[in-house]
Amino acid sequence: xxxxxxxxxxxxxxxxxxxxxxxxxxxxxxxxxxxxxxxxxxxxxxxxxxxxxxxxxxxxxxxxxxxxxxxxxxxxxxxxxxxxxxxxxxxxxxxxxxxxxxxxxxxxxxxxxxxxxxxxxxxxxxxxxxxxxxxxxxxxxxxxxxxxxxxxxxxxxxxxxxxxxxxxxxxx
Length: 172
Hints:
Elements: H1 9-20, H2 27-33, H3 41-48, H4 55-71, H5 76-93, H6 96-109, H7 129-142, H8 152-161
């Protein structure tokens, strides 16, 4: 079998189809879309991606993949810029929710927001009266800016007057 020193147009088209549609099309579909015969599409796809049979095609596919990775690489600058474009387009269309979401996403990418998730185990019902009182004082101190004017005794009374839920198993 003679080896070609240049790619044919169909081979180039196959390589472009394969790289541009990575994960969306199979090799079989790319071979057909490149113009190869449908009845041999499976074997043609296997041959074109075999470096032993078609090293130039495989090499070209590798080059195209590198180009695509560079072109679509996500960098901080590109990401922020794209979000800004989306925000502006959304503003122009009056899609305020989309514009706000794009701006918040820009802020998160820039590190302006810190998301915290605190997972705690245990329930307030499991605390002793002293532990509960200590916890309420801590909450009052932490949240005093938003609880302005609320006394600890008032919060304590509200907590104590709420009826405790009885588990279903205890009802029988």
